[in-house]
Amino acid sequence: MSPIIGCELSMEDSRVLPVLVENRTGYKNLCELLTKAHLHNEKGKCTVRWDELPGICEGLVALVGVPLREL
Predict the structure, then answer these.
(1) CB of 34 within 8 A of CB of 45?
(2) DSSP three-state, residue 70
(3) Alpha-carbon distance 24 to 50, whole Å?
(4) pTM attached to this predicted model
(5) What are the pLDDT tens digits along the chain (71 aa)?
């Protein structure tokens, strides 16, 4: 059984985007997103910009949905 790898990305607008890694490309892209986020933020903060996602989203699965109270 393989582990499930992913994280919660803190986005620039204070939203949280949970993402899971689908394959090796996804793991590489997640590492790249996190590295960029650390580089353009002050120490101790790590936010991802929405405009960074389209270019580095292959192999990542974002978990989005409607809150249960809205169903």
Answers:
(1) no
(2) helix
(3) 22
(4) 0.81
(5) 888 999 999 998 989 999 999 999 999 999 999 998 888 888 878 899 999 888 888 999 999 876 666 54
Token match 């689908």: residue? 22
Q: Which pair of tokens denotes residue 30? A: 């997640």
> Of all helices (H) and strands (E), which one includes residue 27?
helix 24-39
* Token output for 66: 């409607």
Query: Rounded to an integer, what distance in angstroms lies between the CA atom of residue 33 and that of residue 67?
Result: 26
Burial (0-12, 13-18, 19+ Cβ within 10 Å), 70: exposed
Radius of gyration, alpha carbons of the chain: 13
Closest residue by Cα to residue 19 from 46, 52, 66, 27: 27
